[in-house]
Amino acid sequence: MTDLLRSALLEELREIAALPVPAFDPDLADDYAETGRRLPYENQYFARRRHLGALALVGDGAVLSTVIADICDERSWALPAHWDDGDPRTCVDLFACETAQALAEILRLREDVKDRERVEAEIRRRVLDPFFDSEQAFWWEERFSNWTAVCAGAAGMAALALGYDTDVIRGRVLPALQAYLFSFGPDGGCVEGIDYWVYGFGYFTYFAEAWRDTTGEDLLAGTEAIASFPANVQLYPRSFATFGDAAHNPTLPPGLLSRLSDRLGVPLPAIEHTPTFADDYCARWAHLTRTLEWGRELGGEIAPGRTLLADVGWYVERRLIGRRMWSLAVKGGYNEEPHNHLDLGSFIIAADGEQLLCDPGAGEYTAAYFGDERYEQVHPSSKWHSVPTVEGASQQVGEDSRAELVYTDDGVDAYIDAYGDGALLRKFTWTEAGIELFDAGPELVESFISRIRPETEGDTATWTGERGTLVLHGVDPDTVRIEDVETTAHTGQPERLWALRFDFRGSLRFELL
């Protein structure tokens, strides 16, 4: 890492370490069962992990030991939303594994940690023994998602830090990580989106490099397509396609990107903002420490280009029109993906990264958001994506609901079978001044979603953003209506979405200004 960037990050850590130790109310763990809300407990949980990371790298040993002792006293290292019917203390989830890794590596880093035997015993009892001693596979070892890489990778790094026999690690961790890799198609697309690429492939990379340091084996070899995913789906610096439970401006750790570039020679996304530790809501030790070790200033420029990731069904194209970089992103795939939304054929139009027609991305995670009522929630629902109804029907849930994307000379076609008996064809075509959309299907009612209120006049609708203006021609003035909904984004911020709806009468044209 360059001296300037490293100095800035270390200064931030010193400021955090100098603050009082965050308050922690263990009774908030029961709030989730009563209300379904996750944030009250999780906010304090991650604040404690942030303080742990800062103290471990730049803080006083006595204060660090006190925080570690408090973590060892926690009812569970797993989040309450992930507790199953067993003992919460031995629930092996993402954050239990991350905590085990952080504490194991801190023990190796800091000789002044008190009660080291107790800390190591807690790591073993809560995570490593349940994982390595279990004869039955955990669900995340068989249903592949970011969980597979994070849990196995973090537990594996904890075991390496504590000096476990590499044959033990090889027998349990490597099969899970190989299965995680096999869940990607040849195009390397991450069906869970950019945030979960950072999370899952990040922890895969961190373990792979720790494993290479220990054994000389290179697990990263051959992963170039997966490593290229962020560059393929970037709309603009600090702006990515937000399909599924994603954010439009995710934190991409400089250490991870630098390592992948150095090791694999893959193209990197253009970076205008170097993330701080505060940018990572979950305060992940692995991202922090690997950025300090590997990170550097990346930069880069965004350029016109197009990508079709046919395996996951993502299309992204950037074109320079006038003085602005306009982007079109279209979603295919199927309606039972990890972190699934009912969004087949939905699309984003962005001007210099600002989504004028948006994908809602991730909502606030609650019990209902991951329960039977998931598709009644705003963000995952078909109603709040830019997709039509077909003969009055919204999109259906299930692996059989699918959309195939096919390149054309000037855009992409989406063949969508997700409405029961009614099928839909969407044709997106770039022109010199905009994008044409033609929908073929019975009894279509169009919906176009934005965080900007549309203004209608006659057969046009206009969305005026800070970086560009989008004008839709072809609105049916007799059936047009504007709806809005107040909702909550992933980390609890209130937001409002606007929908423009009308009966489809013919081809539509988006003028890009």
TrEMBL record:
Boundaries of every Heparinase II/III-like C-terminal domain copy: 307-396
GO CC annotation terms, alphabetical: cell envelope
Superkingdom field: Bacteria
InterPro entries, per the entry: Chondroitin_lyas, Hepar_II_III_C
Location in or out of the cell: Cell envelope
Annotated GO MF terms: lyase activity
The protein's name: Heparinase II/III family protein
Organism: Glycomyces luteolus
